[in-house]
Amino acid sequence: MEVEGLGCGFISKDDLDLEEALEDLEQIVGKLEDGKLSLEESLVLFERGIRLVRLCSSRLESAEQRIESLTGELPCDL
Amino acid sequence: MTQIFTVSELAERIKERLDSDLRLHDLWARGELSNVVNHRSGHRYFTLKDKDSQLSCALFRNYGARLGFELKDGQNVQVFGDVEVYRPRGQVQLVVRGIRLDSGQGLRHLELERLKQKLAAEGLFEAERKRSLPKYPARIGIVTSPNGAALRDVLSIIGSYPARIILSPAQVQGDGAPESISLAVRSLQGMADVVIVCRGGGSAEDLWSFNHEIVARAIFECDSPVISAIGHETDITIADFVADVRAPTPTAAAEMAVPDVAELKSHLGLVESRMIRSLWSSLERKQERLEYLQRSLSARRMYALLAEHRQRLDDLAEHMESAQRARVEALKNRLALAESSLDSVSPLATLSRGYSIARSSDGRLILSAEDAAPGDVIELILADGKLMCRVLEKDVKCGS
Known about the structure:
The structure holds two protein chains of two kinds.
Chain A: H1 18-34, H2 39-62, E1 66-69
Helix pairs in contact in A: 1-2
Chain B: H1 7-20, E1 27-38, E2 44-49, E3 54-59, H2 61-64, E4 76-86, E5 91-101, H3 107-122, E6 139-144, H4 149-158, E7 164-169, H5 177-187, E8 194-199, H6 204-207, H7 213-221, E9 226-230, H8 238-242, E10 245-246, H9 250-257, H10 261-298, H11 300-345, H12 347-352, E11 357-360, E12 377-382, E13 385-390
Parallel strand pairs in B: 3-5, 6-7, 6-8, 8-9, 9-10
Antiparallel strand pairs in B: 1-2, 1-4, 2-3, 4-5, 11-12, 12-13
């Protein structure tokens, strides 16, 4: 089942690649809306999709600015 | 419908058109001075002309104060400024911010033009090589001064967008700035998904570092797409020409680099509701199908089955009946046949010719005189009945 390749099952919030996650979501939604899946497949995809949405959302909620400087030189008020 | 403008509206329209044309801003023009007027207010007005055309120019007091020479008719000059509309008189004029005698001073500008042509010929400005920006960059490289307002502007726009921000500090003006900028760009090799090269506004002099060839080449060779934002909207440097995307300001550059977080959140919400909706509708479709199957199974289909079975039953019954009839007929025929053949061998036929059959009282055929004794009761079977007889005498033939 192609579904296996999707949704990068068990990623944590920190190594979430937003672009990949959003692309996966697009695909998941596309497949779900296509309506050709069995109920079991739909449920598996749905669960993955919801997990990805939650991960992305929590990533967006909690992002604090992390700034690194190649020279170690940072403005003092940051 | 035809639109009828008021004069002001029309003038405003012309002004907007001129203001939005970047080629009419921060430009250098050369020509000959004429009609120079040194006004009491400190502003200077003059006409710049060549052999075919002329253009009104204004040099306002604050820009004219540092002028190192007297303006005189007939001088060949280069002026720097913006083309604008002076609406009270509906006049297009060049508002001059800098002016120099057209001699050795134009050299740097000429050099810049030469560099521009050289880089253009090498293809550094080609539209086809401009890369598109990643939609959701995970690593954002920033080349700028760590202490400038530009960095602050960029960071505030990136806000809570979740990306690694990698600052590659550079000295953005003064001696050594071009080297510092190009080194800072090259240091980001392999480290960023998109690079912002920026600095805040300043004089043309301040921004000059971004016109250097080594800066242009560093940007050209950068392995990720570069957004340039040097000075204000009207300042265009060679770095801007080489960059994949030019932003009018550092703030705009940051807006181009990252998606809007609020928009992204609402997109996620939309995705979620789309998933829920499609799951529901798939469930509903399955339910409908089930109901349909159930319906057709219970009513129509069952009646059809029943009718079919009934008909088969009728068919079978009919078959059986006709088969039965045939069988009876066959049996009858066989019986008649048997009867006739039986007739031919039946002793009854013989009896009818005058013979009879004798049987002892226990039913045995009497074939010999020895089989009966005088006094025995025997049975004589004739063609049409029987006689019970008593043996009176026995006479056995000799030699038999």
